[in-house]
Design a protein that fits this description.
This protein is an alpha+beta fold. The protein is built from 37 helices and 30 strands. The longest helix has 25 residues. Bound molecules: zinc ion (ZN).
Length: 1028
Amino acid sequence: MYGFGRHIRCLSRLNLVSGRYLKPKAYTSVSSAAAVDMHKTLKVGHQLHGYEVKVVDEVPELCLSAYLLDHLKTGAQHLHIQRDDNNNMFGVSLRTTPADSTGVAHILEHLSLCGSEKFPVRDPFFKMLNRSLTTFMNAFTTPDHTFYPFSTQNLKDYYNLMTVYLDAVFFPLLQPLDFNQEGWRLEHQDINDPQSDIIFKGVVFNEMKGVFSSPAAIYVRSLQNHLFPDTTYANESGGDPLVIPELKYEDLKEFHRKHYHPSNARFITYGNFPLESHLAFIDDYVLNRFNLNENFRNSTEARNQPKWSKPMRKEIQSQPDPLAPFPDKQTTVSISYMLEDKSNTHECFTLSIICSLLMDGPNSPLYQALIDSGLGSDYSPNSGFAGYTKQAFFSIGLQGIAKKDVNFVVKAIDTALKNASNDGFPEERIEAILHRLELSTKYQTNNYGLGLAMNLNSIWTHDCNPIVGLKVNDHVNRFRKELKQNPKLLEQKIKEYFISNTHRLVLEMNPSEDFEKNLREKEQNLLNEKLRKLSKEDLKDIYNKGIQLEKQQNDKQKVDILPTLVVKTDISRSFDATNVETTQISNTSVQWSAQPTNGITYFNAILKPNFSNFPQHLVPYLPLFNQVATKLGAGSLDRKQLDQEIQLLTGGLQMSVHVTDHPSQFDLFEKGLIISSHCLERNIDHMFRLLTNIFNSIRFDDDYDHLLQLIRISSAELAMSLPHYGQRYAMQRSAAALGGAFKFREQTSGLSSVDHFRSMASLESSEPVVEHLKSIADLLLNSDSMRCSINAEASTIRSSLQSVEKFINSLNKRTEPIGETQECGNNGDIPAIESMLNEHHVLPFANNYLGKSVYCTPFVHNDYAKLKIAANLVSAKYLLREVREKGGAYGGGAKFNLGGVYSYYSYRDPNVEQTIDAFNDSAQWLANQSNYSEQDIDEAKLSVFQEVDHPIMPSEQGLLLFVNGITDQMRHDYRMRLLDVTKADIEEVAKRYLVNEKLHSGVVLIGPRNDRTLSDPKWLIIEDKPNN
Ligand SMILES: [Zn+2]
């Protein structure tokens, strides 16, 4: 699990989930009956382990049984979802409804992970990552609750983790120094120098400054604050950096006492482990020690926002976007409508469908009114149905528009909604949405329990019966019935909730050159005010606490207190072989695998032409090609008809760039495109018909304006992703210096690609681009160099393969032979690089992202497993401390990827130089085995096995072989090597590859201007354009 970090207010995820209402995905349809039997004895009214059963319910469409229980002594609620899924999940959720923007809930979330009664160890989640086979661990602060979930497939691990979680939540130490470290503090810039400036520091303080450096985040937060001004949602639950320093330690203690009490807690367990022992454990470990306090539940209730009698309008500002293709088009405007209370589950279900009908895809009225207008770059942030607040809302608008077009956009929305309220929607569009829902109930994600829990929390937090939210079929049936009885139902709802809704907000955001400056000034004023009030004693105290905190950070942690799995006994030396077969159909290799897919057929194709014939100038256009190939119309279908059929008959058609490193040879790699889709069994021939159309005749010339619009949408999305994935971009950019596959990746998904999209987005017409796209289609979309894979139910494999055959035979043949396909690369020795310039990509973020890459060895090499363990070891035992705990970065570490590249990274990092030193020193640290213990090696192994033994969904079985060419034998050898790695091995590979780097990059820094890099000739400064 890479990039582990606590996420605050994981809005995008929650929105996505709630925007589509429920996205539950079934695991297997076969064996849940057996699991249900075990619990058949549990009836409403039964009492066990201090609980009483309140609801017992079956949800056959999701293959699960649900049990809702009350804990009698404390009033805690427990929901158990029994399902034949080995990836068991646990979560505890507390309703945290802050009354201000000090970020108290968020800081408390951090602080509860700084040590607890039984485990006085900082960051137990990070530490448990290395003592567990967890498939997910994290904590989230949302606007109205805080959620602590984990999942694992191992029973012993489940109870280890549950103990740590329960102790952290209910019995945290909450020490004042930890408050200073995690929340905020005044401290000398240089801790050891009492003459140096005193500044604000703190993990959450810095984290939120990072969050507020993105215009999209500012917009989304402000939207929620302004739409619900009289409720808890008016506050910034993550913490406003200018308000955080108002929070006192005592307030936080009190917040914990009132909110983290069992009477205000909701427990959820999911999977195939038995319920009874969960209940006994939780009752014994936590609940027993508390008594009911109804006050705590009542006082945390989120009040409803009273409805406005007339619409409101607000204007806010943000920093200018340095990546905007048109600097004079940086305004965002939207209209948001407050909808129904979430307790009205069915009404919200209906409204979420209406919202999809209104805005999803080129056939929807708002898409046609807004996106097709070409006025903006994309929908405004947070567009769609949002269900993460107590009252749901719908938001729609455009970003990247000219300020003069604001009123036009507002009018266009009004008009589109009025038209929809008169005309309604074509029946096939409603069917397409219901089809998507049907498919999504059968589709399987690899953390099903977690997805379910996050969905349910949004209604359970407000004391509604969570099980009602699971019953997709009930909602669909009732919806169909209501629509039949009243064909004007949707039109009426649009009138009621949109046209005549007086609770609506027009929110406009404009860039201001002074935004950052003003923010910095405000922070400085706040700081000056604090400094003015300091007495001599205070100053002494600040100096001493700085020293004390540093000392505490350097203290050796008693990690051994934490429970752990044991490599020898808890990790098997064998693993399940992949059930795959390969056959040739019309000269095309087709891999197939019979899987319990719940009636879905999954298809993938890799197109791997001879890239030595592939013109280099087309490479930067590949990601655009993938984005648009299914959106322009194909064959007899124009783009709207094509979209309608894709929605109605498939789970979508996706294309992406395919680059995979050779498992055994440096600088050999395969590149091309990968195309994926899935559908219900009954639609398989339709799916292939649509694919054939796209392969043979994309309608590139239908609508250049629309293509330009698609380019602008992609460009806007990429620009927004930069601050979220800065460390990934930095790593990828640095790896590009190693050439080969790494350079190709950078060109197609790195900073270079962001830049290429931006330059395409600023074109006046898309016509010059079209020629390139046509060339790509001509070179790639044919069966000559294709291989396919099918995963389906055993009973449908035969017919599926027949459909594949028809598909292959329906494809165009190239007129000229493309020649023997071969991998690219030099196949030479690894060249040594003497010196390599560092790159600073100047972007006005609040913090920095770093990356540096070293080429080591390919996957099948003996040393690969050793380096893999080394990267995890040094991340957990060295870089975490140096970069995060001491350096104040949000995260950092080392990764060793499938291509054999060892990369260092850090993100939201305030201390660039210190981190670069830590990268270098970490190699020396590894090269001396007295720095780590056998237990440390075991922990690194466990963390690697989290990845190796991660659950593989039926849809993904065999893909490692199909995509990466990694056979079961290679996997087996890798597994054995991992298990056998010793301390001496680590020392040896560290000396060989990391201390004496051969092929390596310079450091890549993405972040704001700084004087040090500007004046240092070792740094290449790249400003304005991210890539030149
Ligand atoms: Zn946080």
